[in-house]
Amino acid sequence: MDDILLFSKDQTEHRERMERLMHHLKKHDLFLKPEKCEFDVTEVIFLGMVIRPSYIAMDPVKLAGIADWEPPQTVKGVCAFLGFRNFYRKFIGKYAHLTRPLNDLLQKNRKFKWTKQCQIAFDLLKAKFLSEPILIMPDVDRPFVIEADASKWATGAVLRQKGTDGEWHPCRYLSKSLSPMERNYEIYDRELLAIYRALMEWCHYLMGGKFKIVILSDHKNLTYFQTAQKLNRRQARWSLFLSEFDLGLVHVPGKSITQADALSRQSNEQDDINNDNEDIIVLPDRLFIKRIDLGMKEDIAERLGPDDFHKSALEQLLHQGMPPIKSALSDWKLEGDLLFFQDQVYVPNDTDLHRRIVQSIHETPGVGHPGQWNTVEQVQRDFWWPGMAKFIRSFVDGCVVCQQLKINTHPTRTPIQPTQATPNSFPFQICTMDLITDLSECDGMDSILVVVDHSSTKGVIFTPCTKTMDTTKIAELLIQHLYKRFGLPDHIISDRDPRFATEVFQEIGKQLSIKHSMSTVFHSQTDREMEQVNQEVEVYLRAFCSKEQT
Hints:
This protein is an alpha/beta fold. The chain contains 19 helices and 18 strands. GO terms for molecular function: endonuclease activity; hydrolase activity; RNA binding; RNA-directed DNA polymerase activity.
């Protein structure tokens, strides 16, 4: 055991936690050296970081001597310099580009030559570290803003939150180089890759948040989806991941997001590379779930004129104003050409317009043709009209893709009793596990390892894998995607797949104090929750790939 860090919101809570910690240490005969302990402090050096209230900084002890660091004379010296500095790269904007001349020296079969560009990069890096940058601590209870940009050589992003002074301060920096293959992407793919990388890097802060994530980009095509195009596999994969977040894409001029732009560009490259953002390329609109595009907005405003329901509400709003007390009329407000009911866009009585709205949401590839109530829930986030739920149910019942691909799940016999969840349990404390196999191969993968939280959140983890993997590989995937994020579960439920029933898997569970239960023989419906998830995934994949089937 090395370091223990105990933190709390106030002094009372801190004392209670400290008392529990001491009892645990005493129970297991673990001892602490008083001279190495610090108690009741507001600043601590932990894992190479100086942690203070609301922000973190680099450890000055680790940076000692950097001002006197001589330029490396060998490849080994460059590796030592970069290896030491990579630990603090999250504090340095433009890191990928600053280190590019130095990284080029590490290429195989290349003669070591310290050029002027290498010296400039070396000096700039030293200056960056000596400037002692700080990052504020992310607060998941406040909204986030992401500035993202891409160049020909790298992607960059900045995660920001508004501080107590009203200014938007950086929480994290991200800068990654593009591989030779990624440099061949079209500009809309590179810009989208910058957003994808940012969300992937900071998903533990952003996923499931209370507020919409605002993404600032200088590529206007990311905010307007008007020309539908065919998705390739890469775009489809990104689309599926992006659909897990509540995103709001906002176009801003490049000069307004200078930090993200600097993270992806280098000053000496500007004269050699044309501004890719001037390319007129339309991003495929199926990459994102639509809310309300410009064409639909104009159609709604145009059809409001002859709508009787709208005329009555509008007349009262214009002539009587908002009522002084709460009434039915107070749910309405007029903004520009649109009428809003309880913050939802009122859609006039036009069947074709209703069908377009429902179709744009129900048939979005990233959604996978949801059922009646899921479609109603997604439509009513932004739209409302009288009889909306009835119209949507009728639309979903008549959807050809749903009728062809979905499975009838109405039970033909009395269902078995489900596994009871533990009250007040943690996420994935009790989980179910299964494999979906024999899928079309993609990037060498032909199966999916599915883990469902049976205890509290009902969350799902999908991990691509291969049908031929063994028990050891399954254990590695669980460690990487389940244990690292949520800790060890208390109980795992699975079917009787030979890989789950092996002595190795059973022994791993025994050593880690994990109870392992397997379903009844020849009755996969024992774990009905998992089977339902598998059916939904298979239906989604069939719907998503319906136009590609031969």
